[in-house]
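Retro notes (design track)

What went well: tokenization of the new backbones is finally stable.
What didn't: we kept losing track of which sequence belonged to which structure.
Fix going forward: every design gets posted as structure first, then sequence, in one message. First example under the new rule, 892 residues:
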């Protein structure tokens, strides 16, 4: 056991220990805790130089961090708050039970909120400050499964109706319902943060707190004492994301951040650490990482017993039990507690001798005692210099009694029988008679009742209601024609990559008087890869402590410049952390009323498939901004091989409903997309965000061929028409990203060598085409009497002559999914399969997407149509140097 007090000293007399303890007590009393701590520290150092090998432990005893004598007075009306809390407990339970009576298996959770009610209510009554015009307010991440309790409180507050509660988990009912968990997409006036995918909210909260400091250090918002609170489950801490960034929080000295871990010792299937102690494990992890840890383990009823325990035996005993034992103990009878907990030592038994069994049964845990929770929260908000985590011990399903309190099945508990309901009603004093009670009605006392008056007064004192979401930034003008103009003009033969072009745009945007300050460039240690190092010097790299060293490259032009008001978030190697920064910056329009515009540029392969769930959460949160998948394309990124070459991300972008995904080939396409994106998101306030792939293959950027802006944005436009429109053999070639150049080369080969006149289209977004096609289909199905709508792709192609061939650097499914709206059969070339370490030419040969394969595919289509002879095809294979025996990339 990781507890200093639990090891039995060898051959030491109890009296000797007693003497040491007493002298420490007397120092404490006469000189205070600081002196006592100093003496202990000196003793430890003395022991070390005397050759005593003290084992390292980051743990403190299994006791409350704040002893009773240092506990502040509870400022509220405790009895009234208990009554309010009981009503919320009842309504939260009623929501779930009623929903499941109406529709079996509709789900919902009772036991999570039941265990966390006090943790939330102390926050609501005394700490969580609302966002007002004068004060930015605190930011609260609610544990997803506790949602019924948050709704039940909003019901008492008069913010949600009984009908809405009735429609919990039935959002499609007329008049609307309530989403199962916090989803800003579904309840944009209520929820701010989607938290139910475990592990996301702890990490998002850390980066949110860090982003708040960033805004302050850059002078973009006033310095305030606003806090970020994150309520998480103890089981949730097993998700690697939960603890993955805790050292960032302490390194950045985020004393605006408070984690509250609801340590009910249980997760879904059973105990979090049956054979260990999750609280001690978390304490050492957080203390080791430099956090201020406050343990709230025992309720006030334990204080007098602890006071009598002058020998420290009780604290020692408290540290001996593993969680599996505790889980059993806290729901056992008083007699059981006496026998199994205190019964191990007659001196312990003596401590509780005056207490009847009933009193032993009622020894509360810290997380259910508002006075203890208040003390912890107060200490947390007053703490300076590091983030705080509160480890609060609770019972899962608290108050459910036989129906599930502390049981392994409690997480799934959704129904209570009549007796169980009556018992719950009686335990929490809900004014319902036996008969009414079994109907589980929602109960709200009259508006003029003391409960409602008190609850309203408390919230008024704290600025209003929480949670509440409001997009409160002012739209920007977004007049940026001049800014983007130069990029529409091409590179005059100079070979540049789309990444370079984008970085040029970014550099220019950073200087723009309107949006310059709002831009937040975010990179996970990849700036040099994307040629962004020139921004280090001009925009600066954000560091909350400025710069304590002379950079090794200070004499160079592009030195690594860290600064307190630096603009770039150089996150180090964490795509998840970078995404969390993206989310914080991209939702600041609601959180802070500030239109920050994040540009998160990263290795595209480590985006969707690594942090897809964060992207999904960003979408839910209505995050705005631009994600740039750099070094994109399975065959465009040469050399890097299987784990780097991305031919997937545009497919993985498909499921994200409000994400616009573009695979541009040329600088002007990017300029058009970015300019329009800024307008849509920051002027028109649309809840969309952007994914744009950029590549590192250099080529001459053409100027924009006429006004094709609309086509670029809608997903395709004709880039270069065939020269000879009279030709008998015709084709339409579709290229995108860097592969567009392969299509253009194929156009030439086809024309010069095979007499085929081909038009070449740039497909900037298969996703846009797909959504548009589906929308037209749907409309036509629902309104068949109206004039049918024609999908954009069909409008573009009309009866464009010839065979159809598409090539992209992503899976073939992208072109295939829009082929049904094309006038004829489509041949698709794509890069299904594992990447390889190779050069571009070899890769494009291997994946069969280069100009030769596009040529071959075109000729083959013409052959199938009976337009050319087989011998032409055979000869082409030879002339083009295509090896028909080559391996199939899809399966090799
Ligand atoms: C990423 C993810 N995996 C699994 C789940 C399913 N799930 C929901 S609640 C839960 C157990 C939660 O335990 P804990 O974090 O201790 O919260 P408690 O309800 O005990 O407060 C699980 C596994 C989820 N919501 N998210
Ligand atoms: Mg738990």
């Amino acid at each position: 056991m990781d507890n200093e007090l639990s090891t039995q000293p060898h051959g030491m007399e109890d009296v000797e220990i007693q003497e040491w303890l007493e002298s420490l007590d007397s120092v404490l009393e006469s000189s205070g805790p600081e002196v006592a701590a100093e003496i202990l520290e000196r003793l430890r150092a003395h022991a070390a130089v005397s050759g005593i090998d003290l084992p390292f432990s980051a743990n403190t005893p299994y006791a409350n961090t704040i002893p009773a004598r240092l506990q502040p007075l509870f400022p509220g009306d405790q009895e009234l708050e208990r009554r309010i809390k009981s009503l919320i407990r009842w309504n939260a339970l009623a929501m779930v039970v009623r929903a499941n009576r109406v529709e079996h298996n509709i789900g919902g959770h009772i036991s999570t909120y039941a265990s966390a009610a006090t943790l939330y209510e102390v926050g609501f009554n005394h700490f969580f400050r609302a966002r007002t015009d004068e004060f930015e307010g605190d930011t609260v991440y609610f544990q997803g499964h506790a949602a019924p309790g948050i709704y039940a409180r909003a019901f008492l507050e008069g913010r949600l109706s009984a009908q809405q509660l009735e429609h919990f988990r039935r959002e499609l009912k007329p008049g609307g319902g309530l989403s199962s968990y916090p989803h800003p997409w579904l309840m944009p006036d209520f929820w701010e943060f989607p938290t139910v995918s475990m592990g996301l909210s702890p990490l998002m909260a850390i980066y949110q707190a860090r982003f708040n400091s960033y805004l302050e250090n850059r002078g973009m918002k006033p310095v305030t004492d606003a806090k970020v609170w994150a309520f998480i489950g103890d089981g949730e801490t097993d998700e690697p994301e939960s603890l993955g960034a805790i050292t960032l929080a302490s390194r950045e000295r985020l004393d605006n951040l408070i984690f509250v871990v609801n340590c009910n010792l249980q997760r879904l299937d059973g105990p979090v650490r049956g054979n260990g102690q999750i609280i001690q494990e978390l304490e050492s992890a957080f203390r080791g990482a430099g956090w201020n840890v406050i343990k709230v383990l025992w309720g006030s009823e334990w204080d007098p017993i602890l006071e009598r325990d002058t020998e420290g035996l009780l604290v020692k005993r408290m540290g001996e039990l593993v969680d599996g034992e505790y889980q059993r103990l806290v729901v056992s009878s008083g007699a059981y507690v006496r026998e199994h907990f205190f019964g191990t030592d007659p001196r312990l038994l003596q401590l509780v001798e005056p207490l009847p069994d009933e009193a032993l049964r009622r020894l509360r845990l810290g997380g259910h005692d508002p006075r203890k929770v208040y003390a912890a929260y107060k200490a947390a908000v007053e703490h300076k210099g590091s983030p705080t985590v509160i480890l609060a011990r609770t019972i899962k399903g608290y108050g459910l009694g036989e129906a599930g309190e502390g049981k392994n099945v409690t997480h799934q508990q959704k129904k209570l029988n009549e007796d169980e309901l009556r018992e719950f009603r009686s335990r929490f004093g809900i004014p319902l008679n036996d008969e009414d009670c079994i109907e589980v009605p929602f109960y709200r006392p009259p508006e003029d009742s003391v409960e409602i008056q008190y609850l309203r007064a408390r919230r008024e004192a704290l600025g209003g209601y929480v949670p509440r979401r409001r997009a409160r930034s002012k739209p920007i003008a977004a007049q940026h024609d001049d800014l983007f103009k130069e990029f529409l003009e091409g590179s005059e033969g100079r070979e540049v990559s789309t990444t370079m072009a984008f970085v040029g745009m970014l550099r220019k945007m950073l200087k723009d008087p309107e949006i310059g300050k709002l831009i937040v460039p975010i990179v996970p240690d990849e700036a040099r890869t994307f040629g962004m190092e020139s921004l280090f010097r001009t925009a600066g790299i954000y560091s909350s402590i400025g710069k304590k060293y002379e950079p090794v490259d200070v004499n160079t032009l592009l030195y690594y410049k860290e600064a307190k008001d630096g603009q770039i978030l150089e996150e180090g190697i964490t795509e998840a952390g970078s995404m969390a920064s993206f989310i914080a910056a991209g939702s600041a329009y609601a959180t802070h009323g500030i239109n920050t515009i994040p540009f998160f540029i990263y290795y595209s392969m480590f985006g969707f498939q690594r942090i897809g769930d964060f992207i999904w959460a960003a979408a839910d949160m209505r995050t705005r901004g631009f994600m740039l998948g750099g070094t994109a394309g399975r065959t465009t990124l040469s050399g890097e091989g299987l784990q780097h070459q991305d031919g997937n991300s545009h497919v993985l972008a498909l499921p994200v409903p409000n994400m616009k995904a573009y695979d541009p080939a040329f600088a002007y396409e990017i300029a058009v997309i970015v300019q329009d994106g800024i307008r849509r998101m920051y002027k028109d306030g649309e809840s969309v965000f952007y994914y744009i792939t950029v590549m590192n293959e250099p080529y001459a950027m053409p100027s924009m061929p006429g006004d094709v802006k609309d086509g670029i944005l809608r997903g395709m436009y004709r880039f270069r028409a065939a020269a000879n429109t009279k030709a008998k053999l015709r084709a339409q070639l579709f290229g995108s990203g860097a592969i567009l150049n392969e299509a253009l080369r194929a156009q030439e080969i086809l024309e010069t060598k095979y007499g085929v006149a081909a038009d070449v289209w740039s497909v900037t977004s298969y996703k846009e085409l797909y959504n548009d096609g589906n929308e037209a289909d749907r409309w036509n199905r629902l309104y068949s009497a109206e004039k049918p709508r024609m999908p954009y792709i069909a409008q573009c192609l009309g009866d464009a002559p010839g065979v159809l061939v598409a090539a992209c650097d992503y899976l073939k499914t992208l072109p295939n999914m829009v082929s049904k709206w094309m006038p004829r059969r489509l041949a698709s070339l794509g890069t299904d399969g594992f990447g390889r370490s190779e050069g571009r030419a070899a890769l494009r040969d291997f994946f069969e997407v280069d100009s030769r394969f596009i040529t071959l595919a075109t000729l083959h289509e013409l052959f199938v149509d009976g337009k050319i002879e087989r011998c032409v095809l055979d000869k082409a294979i030879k002339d083009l140097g295509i090896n028909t025996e080559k391996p199939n990339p899809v399966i090799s």
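Added context from the reviewer: The two ends are 52 Å apart (CA to CA).
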